[in-house]
Amino acid sequence: MTAPPEDPAAETAATQRLDRWLWFARFVKSRTLAAKLVASGKVRVNRERAQKASRLVRAGDVLTFPLGPHIRVIKILAPGTRRGPASEAQRLYEDLSPPAPAAPKPEAGERDKGAGRPTKAERRQIDRLKSTE
Q1: Maximum Cα interatomic distance, the chain, rounded to a whole number of Å
Q2: Where do the DSSP E strands lie in 61-116?
Q3: 80, 27 Cβ separation under 8 angstroms
Q4: Which member of 26, 38, 39, 54 lies 3.0 to 4.6 Å from 89 by CB, making a disulfide possible if both were Cys?
């Protein structure tokens, strides 16, 4: 007995092109940018470098790629059907990236010494120094 042939329609419904998925999930603004990101060799699917934008991805795959100053680690939960609103796109993946360290924000009116323009008080001190010379 031979096994029945697998249904090709079910296989294509469960998979999706990598560039389309990145675009549907709103990680890039266009499919062209998604294809360039993949072609640059910076995208990994399950720790293997993706060479082509046409690489098929499915639910359960883990993507690793740079996005801005951060490295994103994303687990695909579902293939996309359209590029919808951000709330819909966030349901396509689970973010496994470690949270970015929060930079300490200076209090209002405080800044590093010597950074930027002088404050009013500093300007008055400078004026007093210059006037005594």
Answers
A1: 104
A2: 62-67, 70-76, 93-95
A3: no
A4: 26
Q: pTM for the complete prediction?
A: 0.67
The whole-angstrom distance between residue 80's C-alpha and the CA centroid of its chain comes to 17
Contact 19, 53 (CB under 8 A): yes
Burial 30-40 (b: 16+ CB within 10 A, else e): ebeebbebbee
Element (H, E) at 90: none
**51 to 32, 44, 45, 104: CA distances (angstroms):** 15, 9, 10, 39
- The 10s digit of each residue's pLDDT in 70-126 is 899 999 999 999 999 999 999 999 999 887 777 777 666 666 776 788 889 989 999
